[in-house]
Prior knowledge:
14% helix, flat
Amino acid sequence: MFQFRLLAAALFFLALTDAALADRSAMPAELDAALAAAERTPDLKLSFTLRFQWPDAADITQRFDATTKSWTTLEGDPGSMSAAARKAFDVVKRTESKPGGLLYADFRPYLKDVELVEETDRQAVFSFSSPEADRVSSEARESIEARLVLDRESGLLTRYSVRALSPFRPLPVARIDEYIYELDFEPLAAGGPAVMTQIRKLAKGRRLGARVDEQYTALFSDFAIVE
């Protein structure tokens, strides 16, 4: 998918590394099955429409054509975006337009200590940490809530969520005051893989002495598979 993009100043939490990887044998069976379903089509190519929302700015809507790897603006003026908004917008476009970018086919290696923490007949909620979590302070680990939500009827993931429950310092040079990073998924079609339909990000704090204040929502729709 997005190779687990690093989350603003909380880069530690899902840091990409070839070091410790999660133990597949420790994965709960129904979550293991959901991940395996996505892993069967890790390079799925999709055309889609992206609507990008930034506070106090007009929405920007573009269409990605996976056959030509090109973007067409449908609504709004990307040239009017602030530098911070444009940077976030470009990262979303570049990451999610890659083959498999809207799937969760690459989640497995970065899930550790997965536990079932809540369940109903309709859904299961799992907590998890990253293989990199041991490298940060106990304050940072205790301040982060990480959840995966699985729909039991479809057997697919519907949400990935990382939240800061309280302000903390993930690193000596960074402070997180507020943090939310949520990804929502829906089935592409009956019996098909789950695709990402929304990213919601809020990050406030300081990093290397500079203020961090980033908020956006990215909405994905009108998917078309490209063979």
